[in-house]
Automatic annotation (TrEMBL):
Keyword Cytoplasm appears in the UniProt entry: no
Name of this chain's protein: Wall-associated receptor kinase 2
Origin: domain of life: Eukaryota
Predominant location category: membrane
Organism whose genome encodes this protein: Vitis vinifera
Length: 291
């Protein structure tokens, strides 16, 4: 490779990296709140900066650093990924007989295009004789139970398998449901009256940062991961070649639809990077030699 070709290649890669960094938010819209990038279809500011009201993000500048909040569900945003996930701070609301915490055994979720991730999030219960379950349309669709053994203590830094702690996955694509915390009779009235609580949590964070599940009782929030898609939309492309102006997604993208839910998600073609939801958001990453 000659010196001229090498310089051209470096210049092209620098230009591409600069372009990729500048195309996450819509032009003229705020790209970050504090330490968090806010890519389109999410956005801060006027209605033109986000896809619809569910994707509106507000920036609380009274904190240091400022904190972004997903306005539709009033949850702090920790990270947004264009692969269809968003990490949020989710309150630990469900509890019974816990000192310093109000008793609350039901939590309703209706999150528009957001559902708790079946891949990353776990519905978790801690305590003795705890019964947690998820209901939709008066039907139980998931849950787990904890038990305690006299003179036995659950191992620390262990996953929840039932002894003082249990976990269950959330059914995929669940846009609305009721989470419940109850108790069951195992012959010990004392265990039924002990503190028990439940929460949705990012399983990776939970394993890496919580050596003792009982410590979550003193936390106000824990990270959880939500899945998101664009609902009530179609790719609107007349052929399988979606690299056209008729596609909902931008150029050099793949538009994937779910006909059952009338939803879609966009992704860049291989060797392209960037934001597939913007018209020219996906840019090539191949070098001159590779091309």
């Amino acid at each position: 490779m000659s010196t001229v070709q090498w310089l051209l290649q470096i210049s092209l890669l620098l230009w591409l990296s600069k372009g990729l960094a500048a195309t996450q938010a819509k032009p003229g819209c705020q790209e970050r709140c504090g330490d968090v990038d806010i890519p389109y279809p999410f956005g801060i500011g006027s209605a033109g900066c986000y896809f619809d009201e569910w994707f509106e993000v507000t920036c609380n500048n009274s904190t240091d650093p400022p904190k972004p909040f997903l306005k539709g569900v009033n949850l702090e945003v920790l990270n947004v990924s264009l692969d269809g996930t968003i990490r949020v701070n989710n309150p630990v609301l469900l509890s019974q007989n816990c000192s310093g915490k109000p008793s609350n055994d039901t939590q309703w979720w209706e999150g528009g295009p957001f559902s708790f991730s079946n891949t990353y999030t776990r519905f978790t219960a801690v305590g003795c004789s705890a019964l947690v379950y998820i209901m939709q349309d008066d039907t139980v669709i998931g849950g787990c139970m904890t038990f305690c053994k006299k003179d036995a203590t659950a191992a620390k830094k262990a996953s929840c398998y039932g002894l003082e702690c249990c976990q269950t996955q959330v059914p995929p694509g669940l846009l609305s449901f009721t989470a419940n915390l109850g108790t069951f009779s195992d012959g010990s009235a004392d265990e039924q009256e002990q503190c028990k609580f439940a929460f949705m949590v990012d399983q990776e964070w939970f394993i890496s940062n919580v050596p003792d599940p009982h410590t979550v009782k003193d936390m106000e929030y824990v990270p959880a991961v939500l899945d998101w898609r664009i609902y009530n939309a179609t790719c609107a492309a007349s052929t399988s070649n979606l690299n056209t102006s008729t596609s909902f997604c931008g150029e050099n993208t793949l538009c994937s639809t779910d006909t059952q839910t009338s939803s879609l998600i966009c992704s860049c073609f291989p060797v392209y990077e960037g934001n597939p939801y913007l018209p020219q958001g996906c840019q090539g990453t191949q070098s001159i030699e590779e091309c």
